[in-house]
Every structure is written in structure tokens, then in C-alpha cells.
Design goal:
The protein has 97 residues and is mostly beta strands. It is built from no helices and ten strands. The protein is globular.
Length: 97
């Protein structure tokens, strides 16, 4: 279970909701995408991918990308792959995590 506040994200495993990992972040993004082993969230600095234990797996920044304006039509997370659609040319950019 993920709980976002203005300053952090709390990660609660469903097997033990009293156990919590906390990830600090700078402002809430427009999208959080979840996969089986990780989740990605966007904010004004880029797209951040974390494991459910709270470890940062990747930080993605693209020139011209307005990551705080991304919605679910333009980003998808699956396993160890993040796909982004570049709206300027409609090409899909893939990033291995």
C-alpha cells in the first residue's frame, strides 16, 4: 500500500501494514504507476522508480519532458522496463531499470 503526503511516500507491505518504509520526495507528481516489484512516480524533476522496500532503482530525466504533466497514456511500468511516449514525435522511449 502506498500513501503519499506532500513531503513523502509511505510504503506499507500488505503482509504487515505496521512495517513502513518512507521515501522523501519533492512535491506530488501527476502520476504513480505500479508494477509487481516497483513503482514509478513523476514530479517536476523527472520520473523516479522505487522498489517496495524504498530503494531508488532509477531516476529518469528527459530533455523537454514535462514529467509533472505525464498521465497514464504516456507512461507504463512493467517488471524492469519503463516506457514513455514522447509527445513531440510520438516515439516510445524505453528505459531498463
Amino acid at each position: 500500500m502506498l500513501i503519499f503526503t506532500e513531503t513523502n511516500c509511505q510504503i506499507h507491505p500488505l503482509s504487515n501494514v505496521r512495517s513502513v518504509s518512507v521515501v522523501d520526495h519533492d512535491g506530488m507528481g501527476s502520476l504513480t504507476s505500479m508494477s509487481r516489484n516497483s513503482f514509478a512516480t513523476s514530479n517536476k524533476h523527472g520520473i523516479l522508480v522505487y522498489s517496495y522496500s524504498g530503494r531508488k532503482l532509477s531516476s529518469i530525466q528527459c530533455n523537454g519532458l514535462k514529467s509533472d504533466k505525464i498521465d497514464d497514456r504516456y507512461m507504463s511500468l512493467s517488471g524492469n522496463l519503463l516506457a514513455l511516449v514522447d509527445t513531440s514525435d510520438q516515439k516510445v522511449r524505453l528505459s531498463l531499470l
